[in-house]
């Protein structure tokens, strides 16, 4: 019999080494997250998966489960904090869902729906982030980047290419590509790369494939992210 | 409920496309039910030009791209007890705000000087024309906004849900399927 | 302006630096810093050369270069001047001097002059608060700025005088020791503490212990008797960097951490003294470097480490050569190197890494990342550095002052040390006193000294507030001046900044909020975006556009930063605001000039460009800024 911890009063079994997020997902319980991806080492930067463990806030994607832990997740307080973080991500970049090909398949948007985010609340930063359309197959729209580092990790750890990295600091942190010109066309990036598949938002997009699936019939139009994520990441 | 005093509702479109108003009409026959509870004040539906002081609900479509938008928004805020931002443009500037990464001189140059087919053209300076803000802003950055209905446009069902929640004295929420940013 | 160096000379120069560092990418920060010292900036050609010679992806180089304030991927001129912008510099009038220099040199603030000669900008506190206003010229510190000094500097820049030929008195940094106790007053001779530590175990015991260690995979090298560890524990020594973790427990955890083949234990001295208002490590490293290095060696002895680092903040670049000279002397005296003091297998050496303008690297795991040549992003913890630190090896990170104290404990014993100070706070504490007082400088007191006593000693009158331990510490008001410095009451990393009644505590908090926003590493959402939002709100209040709505927003953001941030920077970024709201609320209420919500930006100003382009200035071409007062 596996050890358990409690999540919002429910006993969740876990295997040694599993994080709270992994164990919860395996048990069919959704904890919102953006920078976590089941195929990669947890990163812990977006903080959407924050829970309270024995009364203390911590990121559930990096915290290993331990027997008897008391974890709170679906509380008004924590969801309010997660909603505020989501609003921060929206105002930090330029997120215009109506003109984004990723709309309906976007984890940021779907997470905002899940959290009942009716508005971005804060004043917008409206940063100036030019797009990179140099690559023949792929468009990079940095306006939507949430700095989750999934493409960085995928390119480095799976593709062995280091096409992406973060540069800058603080609010000026931004995605860069591995070329003296700074252009994706001058890298060895291809559409077959793992890094081309992992963007949770609409930064890395396949060209000439707009609106193949109509708005309203996309992933998170059909089912909320809570059920999609639990089914896919179990 | 018919015994109760009807609520006075005003609506307008600022830097928007009137799509949210069209969607409002998509509540279809429920308009009749709505009219049992509300009277329309200033609105494209009535052609009344000013907001009556003490109006209960003001509904704003569109963001702020010029001085006139600001004047209208302030008139609504000053005269409405509750202000609702309707649709993507009112909420985050929407598509018009995609000009925010361009400088105004670059935009004016493209539109009035260097654009296709333009010769010897001038930037219009008639005081009748609303003067343009350097950036497009969502309305909550200029006045306090009480409620938001996301969507481009929000569906008629979403608008109906928020209005009926409000009429019932509840905090409006949109469940999966009604909540959309696109 | 000399012509930019040829491609060939760039390649040669980069090759020299890379060779000095054995083409080791874990030394990236040092490599980039040294390349820049020669080339004035990290040009695309220099990055090309580094990419080829280090055999690392360009993204790695640019990612690191983009993180640190003192590394430039845009040209910044032959003279790169940065004004220290701590609140104490502000109080001493740095803003007028900044403008004076910019005007005098015809440069726009923050921009390089058109001839490529000079740039003038601002930087976070440079640790010269007791002799400000201060600046850095090509990372070398100049204090006691005055109009005369600024004019002199402008003249030297205009004449293109090489920095090495500038008058030495410009670069003189005072120690200003006002009260010395066991640390600053120590006359320990180099090696004495190590001899005392060695004497704690009989020779044959030491040998046997070393053999056993080796057999059992316990600490090897200096790793010998646990006796010295016991002394540190008996001393009740706690970390001096602010958190106050028990040093003996940290050392023991490192000592007990398993080693993988090829690994060693690591001793790191954290001299990244970036907390605004703190400068005591600068003075300790100037006056008692042997005490610090000996303490590190004692730690190596206690846990069996063979490698040590001093991570020195980039602002203290001028200390690098003198400190390296001390290390060289200690090697010559067999106090570092192989078989230290003739103890077989006692191998330990220390090298100095310089930071490059990133406060967050004072956080121990971010510091380790930086030591490994990466962006200074705090790690996820656990695991902790004591088990998985530098290059995944068991690592002790302690403050400069902690190591100095450890040396004294080795020399004089734990019981002697524990008798000094208070029950819960053994020993002494160095305070960096600055701000509104007659005698700013370093004061070393036994723990338990009251705030009132310190204020009296430093000649502070008419005091409104004291910021203890810098912006991430606490701000206290006169009613609390009988509180004492110590872990049981007011713990501190050392800053003690005094504000008299002429100061606006809102502006103090706003300066600190700007600091945290500038220094946020950008890794986690709440701190990256939250510190910017907080800065914008404080600036909004400053401009007179604040309403009670904004005040409520500030309070909500504070809570969010505290609960959701990744590391201490985000957790404490709201401290100066929370403290000043609690104690100096009128300073905020004075700022809430609007009853109703008012935009953060100036609406009329937002029409200025269009007015200019249309030539309009009619009534409809203007907007009143504040809600409610429109026509």
Structure, described:
The complex is a heterotrimer of chains A (234), B (182) and C (631). Chain A has 234 residues and is of the alpha+beta class. Chain A is built from six helices and nine strands; from the N terminus they run E-E-H-E-E-E-H-H-E-H-E-E-E-H-H. The longest helix of chain A has 17 residues, at 76-92. Chain B has one domain (7-99, 131-167): Rossmann fold (3-Layer(aba) Sandwich), CATH 3.40.50.700. The model of chain B has no long low-confidence stretch (mean pLDDT 94). Chain C folds into five domains: 7-67; 79-174, Glutaredoxin; 192-418, Rossmann fold (3-Layer(aba) Sandwich); 428-502, Ubiquitin-like (UB roll), CATH 3.10.20; 506-589, NADH-ubiquinone oxidoreductase 51kDa subunit, iron-sulphur binding domain (de novo design (two linked rop proteins)). Chain C has helices at 7-20, 28-39, 44-54, 58-65, 87-91, 94-105, 147-158, 192-199, 203-216, 227-235, 247-256, 280-287, 289-303, 320-332, 364-371, 400-412, 414-418, 451-457, 505-519, 525-542, 548-564, 568-572, 575-583, 585-589, 608-614; strands at 79-84, 118-123, 135-137, 140-142, 177-179, 265-271, 305-312, 349-354, 395-399, 428-435, 441-446, 463-468, 474-476, 495-500. The A-C interface holds A 42, 44-48, 50, 57, 59, 62, 64, 81, 84-85, 88-89, 91-92, 122-123, 125, 146-147, 162-173, 176-180 and C 44, 47-48, 57-60, 62-63, 65-69, 358, 375, 380, 382, 517-526, 528-533, 536, 556, 560, 563-566, 600.
Strand percentage of chain C:
5-15%
Report the radius of gyration of chain A as a whole number of Å.
18 Å
The proportion of residues forming helix of chain C, as a percent range, comes to 40-55%
| SSE string of chain A | EEHEEEHHEHEEEHH
CATH superfamily of the largest domain in chain C: NADH-ubiquinone oxidoreductase 51kDa subunit
User: Low-confidence segments of chain C, ≥5 residues, pLDDT <50?
Assistant: 211-223
Write down how many β-strands of chain A occur, each being a DSSP E stretch of 2 or more residues.
9
